[in-house]
Amino acid sequence: MPSVAPASPLTAARGQLPYLAMVAPLVVFVVLTVILPVALFLFRAVDNRELQANLAATSAALSGWTAEQGLPPEPAFAALVRDLAAAQAAGHAGTLAARLNQAVPGSRTFILKTARLAAEGALTGPDVRSAVLAAAKGWQNPALWSVIAQERGRFTAFYLLTSLDLQRHPDGSIGAVPAEQALFLSILWRTIAISLSVTAICALLALPVAHVIVAAPRWAAAGLLALVLLPLWTSLLVRTVAWIILLQGEGPINSTLQGLGLITEPLRLVYTRGSLVVTMVQVLLPLMILPIVSVLRRIPPTYMRAARSLGAPWWTAWRRVQLPMLLPGLLTGSGIVFVFALGYYITPTLIGGPGDQMLSSFIVFYTDKTLNWGLAAALSVQLLAVLALAAGAVAAVRALASRRVA
Amino acid sequence: MRVEVWRGWLAWGITALVLAYLVLPLFVIVPMSLTSGTNLTLPVPGWSWRWFEVVLTDPRWVQALGNSLVVGLGSTVLAVSLATPAAVGLVWGRFPGRGLLLGLIATPLVLPIVILAVASFGFYATVGLMGSRSGLILAHAGLAAPVVLTTVMASLQSFDRGLMRAAASLGASPMTAFRRVLLPLIAPGVTAGAIIAFIVSFDEVVIASYLTTAEQRTLPRMIFSGVRESISPAIAAAAVLLVLFSAALLAIVTALQRRNG
Q1: pLDDT mean across residues, chain A
Q2: Partner residues linked to A168 by β-bridges
Q3: Contact B22/A41, CB-based, under 8 Å?
């Protein structure tokens, strides 16, 4: 270990080298296993390599063409056949067709067919345009040509627009997608609404518990805190499984109610919004109680007593004296619970119904089922943006509140 | 004063209800795992160890348990050997940008787990580590490293650096002083960090779902797919084992921290 007595700035800097060398392996490791994979994944939200690399000649031939002119002229079709033949030879036809299919659904099959024919040399002659249209009628759709004409750069806004229920019209303007296709904004609002209600319920339940823990004698407080910590140390998966067992059709809650003669048919308790919120609150509540307890411990109980002895009713004293002082703890807890809730996946998947799935479930859906990585990345960008906004809002409110108290 | 008393009782009543809501649901898995029937109904028709027998003898469950242990140990060793020196460097070093590095290392703690899982899946598929246990070990080590870093940094706060100078003045090389003086004294913190790292990996299910094939399934992964397909008392038995194992490890951590502080 180097000694801590720097003689000059240079030797001081050199003295820090061993410490840097101790930190470096972990930093390199985290960059390689976390930062780099996440950055590469998020980049897919704007990546347009498939179109840019494979349809360069076609989009060049389309410069100056707009959708109002009807189908593009002969040179564009000739360029398309050249591009598709090259893509087929390079083995890129599949990814190219899948990418165009995301923009113009239903186009995958005929694009693959055109590529195959182009590679076989079947689409030649003086009138390539007629040959292509005869082989695959789908090329009569000007929307497909608009996509090729518009998406010629290295980057695309397609996925980010789609994740906000927006689309680019053939004339280049941006507008909302038809109502029956809109999906993602409602998922975003649902994710925020579920997380907000979980946060609010946690705050309401945590306040009395925190007060009791702080007011209790030492030994009792330790026991109560242990009970709060116990679920925190149990795996999230196990806690969710426990709730499924409790709430299912033949589970203990339903059988007790039936045994008491209160209901005749089992209630549908699991796979609902209610079961999701009940489980998420149980899972996240300790994270709200702990910061409130730690703030409350530092507030002398004499403040409340002073306010009461001066004649303030309990509620007024609590609201005007206690609440402003425990606000930092409440804000920290709310921030943690909200941010954790936003990214939840296991609990909504296992215990929520189809209408209770949150953003994370759709990120899984688009990578697992439909292999639309661009859209999954755009939804991830959206999730991270909400997360950053929430963290920023909590920090801003904390700063404002501390200024008012001071 | 009557109202005061009532208010006190009300607060205690609410607290008791909230704590019951927090703790009691966990215990439902115990009778479920000991049922002699095949359904998850209460009251149970009779008691038996059959579902524990299934979990501990069925080759698929045994293999999953083995995978969980291998991945947990591998990622713990990796996380501890990277994070322990890094903690020393971050606590004792005075170079600029330490806060930035700390934030960088802590990224996996705030990142939604699904994003990390999907990103790792895409990355390991391109570098050819898909469907291998080493890929999962690397990913879990990244997740556990910030946790180990925090525990070791905390135990370094109470370490007297004069001891290192004393060792140096007695002729110990920096490596010897690190091994013979520093490590024994911060060992409880390092062990606690190691156990928590193991639990992080042992309980993790989302990354495990993305990076493993059927042969490399971990215990939580088996429970997860079991719940989605058909929920049987074997899942409750596996959950009980998972909880008991983590609880035993956490008891060790608590004992270590008490001895340390």
Answers
A1: 87
A2: A174
A3: no
pLDDT at position A8, please? 63
| Interface A-B: count of C-beta contacts within 8 A | 237
What is the gyration radius of the CA atoms in chain B, in angstroms?
23
Nearest CA in chain A to B220: A237
Residue A303 near chain B (CB below 8 Å): no
Q: How many domains does chain A have?
A: 3
ipTM of the complex: 0.89
Show the 3-state SS of B116-128: HHHHHHHHHHHHC
Closest-CA distance, A329 to chain B, in angstroms, reads: 18
Reference A375, options A185, A180, A102, A175; nearest CA is A102
The answer to whether A20 faces chain B, any CB pair under 8 Å, is yes
CB < 8 Å to A33, chain B: 120, 138-139, 141-142
Pairing of strands A166-168, A174-176: antiparallel
% of chain A beyond a pLDDT of 70: 96
Domain with residue B62: its CATH number is: 1.10.3720.10
Contacts of A232 in chain B (CB under 8 A): none
Shared domain check, A135 and A66:
yes
- Cβ-defined contact of A252 to B19 (cutoff 8 Å): no
Helix ranges (H only) for A233-321 are: 236-247, 252-259, 273-296, 302-309, 314-317
> Is B29 part of any domain?
no
Which residues of chain B have a pLDDT value below 50? 261
Distance from CA of B215 to the nearest CA of A (A): 19
Among A104, A139, A157, the domain-final residue is A157
Subunit contact B142:A34, Cβ cutoff 8 A: yes
Provide mean pLDDT across the span A248-272.
82
The model's confidence at residue A382, banded by pLDDT at 50, 70 and 90, is very high
Same domain for A117 and A200, yes or no, is no
Query: From the list B89, B149, B231, which residue is nearest A19 (CB)?
Result: B89
Distance from CA of A92 to the nearest CA of B (A): 16
Listed residue (A172, A168, A5, A147) closest to A80, CA to CA: A147
Query: Going by C-beta distance under 8 Å and a sequence separation of 6 or more, which residues neighbour residue B181?
Result: B163, B164, B167, B172
Chain B neighbors of A241, CB-CB under 8 A: 29, 223, 227, 231, 235-236, 239
User: The tokens of B223 are what?
Assistant: 């429970």
Percent of residues, chain A, with pLDDT higher than 90:
40
Question: Do A5 and A81 share a domain, yes or no?
Answer: no
| Minimal Cβ distance to B40: which of A22, A236, A251 | A251
Q: Which of B22, B28, B174 sits opposite A285 (nearest CB)?
A: B22
Q: Cβ–Cβ contacts within 10 Å for residue B244, how many?
A: 10
Domain assignment present for A172: no
B194 min Cα distance to partner chain A (Å): 15
Q: Where are the alpha helices (DSSP H) in A163-235?
A: 184-215, 218-232
Q: Is the pLDDT of residue A2 over 60?
A: no
| Burial class, A227, CB count within 10 angstroms (exposed 0-12 / middle 13-18 / buried 19+) | middle
Q: Helices A9-30 and B98-110: crossing angle, nearest 10°?
A: 10
What is the per-residue pLDDT across B73-100, written as a single tens digit (0 to 9) for each? 999 999 999 999 999 999 988 888 888 9
Task: Give the pLDDT band (50/70/90) at residue A150.
Answer: confident
| Cα–chain center distance at B195 | 7
> Are the CB atoms for A251 and B40 separated by under 8 Å?
yes
Q: Which two tokens stand for residue A179?
A: 């109502």
From the CB of residue A9, how many other CB atoms can be counted at a distance below 10 Å? 8
